[in-house]
Amino acid sequence: MPGTNIDYSTIFNKTLPPPSNKWQGHPKYNFIGGHSDPKLVPMDSFIESAANVFTGDPRNIAMYNFEGGPQGILSLRNFLVGKLAAERGIDVSAEDILITSGSGQAIELINEVLLETGDTVIVESFTFSGALSYLRQRGVNFIGVDTDDHGIRMDHLKGILEGLKLEGIRPKYIYTIPTLQNPTGSVMSMERRYQLLNLSEEYDVPIFEDECYADLIFEGEYEKAIRALDDSNRVLHIGSFSKSLGPGLRLGYVVASWDVMSRLLSRKTDAGTGVIDQMIVGDYFSKHYDEHIHDMRSALKRKCDVLSAALREHFGPLVDFEEPRGGMYLWVKLPPETDSRAYVQNALDEGIAYNPGPDWSANPDAAANYIRLCFALPSESEIREGIEKLAKVFKL
Amino acid sequence: MPGTNIDYSTIFNKTLPPPSNKWQGHPKYNFIGGHSDPKLVPMDSFIESAANVFTGDPRNIAMYNFEGGPQGILSLRNFLVGKLAAERGIDVSAEDILITSGSGQAIELINEVLLETGDTVIVESFTFSGALSYLRQRGVNFIGVDTDDHGIRMDHLKGILEGLKLEGIRPKYIYTIPTLQNPTGSVMSMERRYQLLNLSEEYDVPIFEDECYADLIFEGEYEKAIRALDDSNRVLHIGSFSKSLGPGLRLGYVVASWDVMSRLLSRKTDAGTGVIDQMIVGDYFSKHYDEHIHDMRSALKRKCDVLSAALREHFGPLVDFEEPRGGMYLWVKLPPETDSRAYVQNALDEGIAYNPGPDWSANPDAAANYIRLCFALPSESEIREGIEKLAKVFKL
Question: How many Cα atoms are found within 13 Å in the side-chain-facing hemisphere of B333?
């Protein structure tokens, strides 16, 4: 029936972000995002796990929240109970865990439950771009706290908390990625973890601990989660399977006590997280976590070394970066006058994608001369070629 | 580190819904929600499809939005292009389709893009409880339009639109489930579909067409989608795989042109819908849709007949309902003085769960003497036993 088109621009919500651009495909030398290593996706084992879980109870698929209810499939939550205890020192039961559709949903559920427009939160000065986007979209103020190689600088944090208190502002949380920070790769020292808990108590502000990357430490033993040190319910803890397996499956989790959990559940209005992902990962990780994560850490360590060497070779003394103790990123500092945003399109023209620093910074301009490079996805030869080409883009 | 617990109640967002109750497990005689038939979940075929898709490109799992980009896996979108053309008369390309994490996300993305607090929308007087919840949570006003066995009463709709126009209010959309309406099971006549398009044009208000149940018609030929009759981009169309396969997998979709699609994408901040679900369903339905949906329709028809007979036997003339042309619900009218909410707990004590009418009504009190019964999940003997017991709960 022909008629007059509706002009949707006259009825859109007036606070929408700009429209998306059409998707252009993936670049050849892909250093952006948090993609994982395709060689490490256990495709054969996933076939085995699928065969196991699809001989189970079909009600898991035929029903909303069949086994385990709205907090998620029990096999996966039970795996997490064991992993959190063994790897992160966190002692919880399956009842304290909510499986989410990616850790992004975990962040947004916590935001939904705690935040209102005009609220204030504290974030690390360089931090996850998605967390900043969510806060901007909600009209929440964020204050960046300085960090160094050992995590948040507690003197600066105390100053911020004291200043806010004088203004009568109680921040809703302190968001931290203490273990393999995104983007810097730093690990907060144990001493600072205790200091952070003390400040949290002194100013009555919860800690929002994001441990999406903690599985990817290259070492055997490492710092416990802040949640493991907390006996007074002041740490909301989240994690992810995107980094240990891959972000194409959408699985994350929140660890929280019932006072908060009951609120997260009332705002999880997505009718549950997909059970096929949960069942397959629950089956696979219950049997193969240790060997899988060993292989993942080894592969990432090699790629990290290759990227570091390529940067030294092709960028020389013009770049400065710390070699991280794990994870999938290098946070690379360019000469002070460089604006990393200015080279994005030129790099894409050469098939290279990197993340300009400002997106990962509470104060964008303060990270103008940084870039974030993810080394998990490209092969070792793609890393070498890509960095050689990238140096030419930056005309070094 | 022992310390003083944080009292989260002092920092919760003040507009939160009440906290969730702890999960109590599923009742034996389960007539609630939109659960599907466990016998119809193709577990063996899912094992085959999993074996197929997990021998494909591992980058689908290792990367965000690898194949197909942020709108979803191409095999699944291409299946939908064919299905929408063959079954619903809708002529679109894969570029017009966005795969969502369940159709609930489809609804919420459209809401996010179009609605602000204080806006007004029009809904069918009896309608999907989730859609009403989403609107309430957003502080959006909804006006219920009367329906009969042929869908929305156009005289009433015109009256509402005219009244709003006089008040200077342009409603943001008219939400309709035209084909196997939830909860009534009615199918809007073709004549009314055209009339609805005319009114949409006259008052410049888009139509939000929810076809979550349209796959489940018992007949061979049936009314085309309203989107199929629309040449002027005034229909936003959504659908689901929860009803044709099962809600444990979280897959729905939106059909929209780029002006709206680009906005939906900018608000789809969940880093993509899970690819394992998409790949398995894309593989399975590309090969087996016709036979699958034939079996599903036959099974639901049988269960519908069993439920209808059980109601007649045990409730007799005290209940009134239309036998629907498909779907998974009976919308059952009890005597006028009955308050269906009053019997929910008594029924649960007997292991029976049903949905009280008020949850499915723009004006809750107007549906006090209705209940909604989903017949897809329970076996035929559970339907018979459950209804016999339910009649005793209602003391008939």
Answer: 11
